[in-house]
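INTERNAL AUDIT FORM
Audit reference: QA-55
Scope: verify that the stored structure record matches its stored sequence.
Auditor: D.O.
Record contents follow.
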Amino acid sequence: MSSEARHRPRLLALDTGGTMTDTFVVDDEANYTVGKAQTTPDDESVCTRHSFGDALENWGVPPEAGAGDLEGIVYSGTAMLNRLLEREGSGDIGLITNGGMEDQHRFGRGIQSWADRSYAGRLHAREHEHPEPLVPRENVRGVRGRMNMAGRRSPRR
């Protein structure tokens, strides 16, 4: 029996990080393999293909054969999150949140604004400095109800 017949990849999980892209592949019998490749920030499709190929190489399965059997893909973009938090890149950023919670992300964590202040400084809010929000208020939208990953309303529980 060939490796291709023994291992039919069903689930692919990817994390594109700042330095490396990690891949986790599960077959239909719950066997798993992992792969790794250098992240290519200019074109993440390159590093995801290389990382997927690295994982399947452990099973002797060519990426072209393994990709056709996939039933699910999970993507985690650590590199994207890092760019957001470091305020790099260009373009508008938006936030979709539950209705009524549109300003919640701007509150921050209180200790971050006064941890290094003297007792007197903690008492006077005008001395506190807060970073600009990652998402400008005009780019925040509240939605009513719960949505599933397909963008449809989910039933209440």
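Auditor finding: record pair retrieved intact. The first helix runs from residue 3 to 6.
Action required: none
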